[in-house]
C-alpha cells in the first residue's frame, strides 16, 4: 500500500483527468453522437421498412381477398342469371306449350263442332233429298202401279194381306 | 471470432519484437547480479518515465546509449519550470534550472544541491523534496497518442456513416459491432432503455481508451499506462463522480434508507447503525475496486510477461531459452485477451454502477428493496 501511494504520480493523474475529459467531450461531439445517431436512424429505417413490408403484405392479402370475393360474387351472379334465364325459358316453353294445347283443343273443338253441324246439315239435307226422292219414286211407282185397275186391286189385296199378317 | 491472417501475423511479430527489444535493454549493466538486474528492470518498466526510449545499447566501454526521445519536464516549484528531460542524461547528471537543481532518481524528480546529493532515511527512501511534477511523461504521451488515434478513428467512422448512408465500411465493420455490443449488452442491459443514452459517450470512450492503451502496453513501446495507479484512479474517480452526480432520489434513498417502508422506524434504527455506514462505504469501495482491478491486472500481466522473458537470461541454456520464450509467447496471447477483458470489465462495472444510480423504482413495486436484501 505504501508503495502504491509512493508510486502515485499526481502529475499523471492530473494529465489523465484533463486528457480523458477532453477526449470524452471531443469524441462525444465528433464521433459517438453521429455514430449512435446514424446507427439509430438505420435501425429505425430497417424497422420502418419491415413494418411497411408487413403492411404491404397485409394489403396485398386484403386485395387478394377482395378480388376473390368479387370473383365469387360475380360467379354467383352469373349462376343466378343463368338459372333465371333457364327458368324463364322453361316457363316460356311450358306456357307456350299449354297455350298451344289450349288453342289446339279449342280449334279441334271448333272443328269438331263445325264438322258436327256440317254433318247434321248434310244429313238433314240428305234426309230431305232422300225424302223428296222417295216421295218422287213413290209417286212414280204409285203412278205406274195405279195406272190400271188390276194393279190397284192387287195392291189393295197385298196391303190387306200384310195387315192381316201384322 | 474470425481474425484475418494478417492481423495474427502482425500480432505475432509485435510480440516477438517486443520481447527481443526488452532483451536488448537487459544486457546493460554487466556487473550486477542478473536477478536483481531483471527485478530492477521490471520495476523500472512498470513505472512512468521522463523519456520515450526505444532501446538502449552498451558500447565496448560499458557505457549505455539510449535511443529515444527526451520529453518535456514541467515542474511546479515556486513557479513553473519547463525544461527538456535530456538535461538529466538518463539520471546521470544534475539538471540546473533557474538556480534550482533537480535529480532523477528511480524515475522520480527530486530537488537537490549542485552535486546532486540525495539523503536517505532508514528504509533507503530519499528524503529530498519532490516538486510537483506535471511533466509530459511517456504515459502522458501515450495517452495523447491514443486519444488522437481514437479521435481520428471514430470521427472518420462517423464521417463514413454520413457519406455511405449509414452503412459501415472498412474499419467501421470491425468497430461497429463493438459499439453496438457496448450499447446493447452493456449500457441498455445495465442502465435501461430510458436513460442509457447520456452514459453512452463515457462508456464508449472509457472502453476504447482502456482497450487501446492495454494493447499499446503489449507492443515493444512497452508503455504501462493502464497499469499505473494514477491513471486508473483518475478513471475510477470519473466513474465515481458521474455515478453520484446522476444519482436519483431512489439511489440516495437506497443508501440512507435501504429498508424503506418494510420495517417500523424503531426497528430500523439498530440495523441502520451498521447498515448505513456500510452503504456509504460501498459508494467509495465500488470505484476503488475498479481502480485496483485494472491496475493490478495490467501490472501483473506485465510482471509475469517480463519475468518470463527475464528467465532466458537467468537460464542461459538451450532448454530454458525456448521454454521461457514459449511461455512468454503464450502469456502474451493471454494478455491480448486480458487487455480486452479488462476494458470490458471496467466498462461493464461502470455501467452497472450507473444503472444503480439512475434506477427509479416503480411505485407499484414496493417490495423491490426487500427482494434486493434477500439476495
Outline the secondary-structure elements.
The complex is a heterodimer of chains A (166) and B (375).
Chain A: H1 2-7, H2 10-145, H3 149-165
Chain B: H1 5-26, H2 34-46, E1 51-58, E2 64-70, E3 72-76, E4 80-84, E5 95-97, E6 100-105, E7 108-112, E8 132-133, H3 138-163, H4 171-191, H5 200-217, H6 229-245, H7 249-256, H8 265-315, H9 320-358, H10 368-374
Antiparallel strand pairs in B: 1-2, 3-4, 3-8, 5-6, 6-7
Helix pairs in contact in B: 1-8, 2-8, 3-5, 4-9, 5-9, 6-8, 6-9, 8-9
Structure description:
The complex is a heterodimer of chains A (166) and B (375). With 166 residues, chain A is mainly alpha-helical. In chain A, 96% of the residues lie in helices and 0% in strands. In chain B, the strands form 3 sheets. Chain B has a 3-stranded antiparallel sheet, with no helix packed on it. A 3-stranded antiparallel sheet of chain B has the order 5-6-7, with no helix packed on it. A two-stranded antiparallel ribbon of chain B has the order 1-2. Chain B starts with a helix and ends with a helix. Mean pLDDT of chain B is 79; it is low at 18-31 and 364-375. At the A-B interface, helix 1 and helix 2 of A face strand 8, helix 3, helix 4, helix 5 and helix 6 of B.
Structural class from helices and strands of chain A? mainly alpha
| Helix percentage range of chain B | 55-70%
Number of distinct beta strands of chain B: 8
Q: What is the helix tally of chain B?
A: 10
Radius of gyration of chain B: 25 Å
Tell me the domain tally of chain B.
2
| Global geometry of chain A | rod-shaped
The secondary-structure element order of chain B is HHEEEEEEEEHHHHHHHH
Give helix and strand order of chain A, one letter per element, not per position.
Answer: HHH
What gap, in angstroms, lies between the N and C termini of chain A? 183 Å
What percentage of amino acids of chain B are in beta strands? 5-15%
- CA radius of gyration of chain A is 65 Å
- Whole-number tally of structural domains of chain A: 1
Which two chains form the greatest contact, residue counts included? A-B, 34 and 46 residues
Instruction: Give the low-confidence spans of chain B.
Output: 18-31, 364-375
Number of helices of chain A: 3
Arithmetic mean of pLDDT of chain A:
87
- Looking at the chains present, what oligomeric state does this protein adopt? heterodimer
**Helix share of residues of chain A?**
over 70%
Please report the distance between the alpha carbons of the first and last residues of chain B.
Answer: 35 Å
Function (chain B): Key component of the proton channel; it plays a direct role in the translocation of protons across the membrane.
Transmembrane segments (chain B): 140-158, 202-223, 229-248, 269-289, 327-354
Family (chain B): Belongs to the ATPase A chain family.
Membrane topology (chain B): Multi-pass membrane protein
